[in-house]
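Figure S7 source data.
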Amino acid sequence: MAQRAAERILEPVWFAEALLTPQVSIGIARSATVAPTNLLRCADTAMYVAKSRNEPVAVYEMSMDAGRAERLALVADLRMALDRSPQQFELHYQPKVDLATGAVVSCEALVRWHHPGLGTLAPDRFIPLAEATGLIDQLTMHLVTAALAECVAWHRRGHAVTVAVNLSARNLSNATVIRHIGEAIAAAGARPEWLILEITESSVMQNPEEAIAALSRFSCLGVCLSLDDFGTGYSSLSYLQRLPVHELKIDQSFVSTLTGGAGSDSDSALFRSIITLGENLNMRVVAEGVETKAQLDAVTALGCQVGQGYLISRPLDAPTFHRWLDDYTPPGGRPHLISAVA
Ligand code: G
Ligand code: G
Ligand code: MN
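Tokens for the predicted guanosine-5'-monophosphate complex:
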């Protein structure tokens, strides 16, 4: 029955001139194997397993509870770390350079969690949990404060480098986050335009009207807004025009297909179109995930203004990034960065 229901739900439907393809996950628990008071909880667990397996239906088994217990323990640790030892969350910084001059203009702050028992966890291990439990607001506010403190230190050392922090879709629906960020900028002695907030295109498009309203309030603070993973989130172009966004970050999947020989293939046609779109909407265009010299030359030749990626540097911890900035050879000393425009 569940299979049949799933097949029916998965059929595409027309709605307001758009063809929608629904997704469905069904969890089943059977009273033969589960106590009546636990039926709903176990069906819920099975439903999440179905989701994670990308299958429409899953039937509860006892082994599924192992993952659930682990998840609950991690949420408890997350809550505790945020309240008592936020220093467990560490930001790494990855530079973004001006492609015409080679100058470092900004960097993206990327969080890691040094978990006391599990070692260092990447963001995809705990950001989704923080989002699902509402802890993401507290985490984001902590990280913005930490990133601003670093940014002020770079400016004191003579490096005019801005800092970008990633926001989750959920952060947009909490007015407290906006107020806190305004206060954090003032408390750090930073200028609002030193802070860039990155939000993925797909999370903006989850609820564009709400996103436009929230981003407008952020924009009033004077911070810079950046549309992350651009090209993968199916933006409606009319919304894009209304978004108070200053920067488009072209998703790295577009950059990785550029193999040099710019202008010859359809990949660079897409890339060029996004750059033209950015120009016409008065947005700065950043290429993410630049890994090779050929990609760097290609994105520069295609008119992209800013580049970020392993070729320039991997994300670095704060002291290493500080030294990297001090040692970075100024433009001209990095001819490979400007070869493509010469
Ligand atoms: O850091 P990594 O290099 O593995 O980043 C993986 C993903 O995690 C990226 O898509 C990045 O946007 C996201 N991410 C990293 N740090 C943060 C953060 O502080 N907040 C949110 N919401 N996402 C983050
Ligand atoms: O989604 P977001 O754009 O915030 O993600 C940044 C992510 O991309 C981080 O996980 C970061 O470590 C990763 N990243 C940064 N530069 C490169 C690169 O040159 N190549 C690849 N494959 N990943 C990169
Ligand atoms: Mn990002």
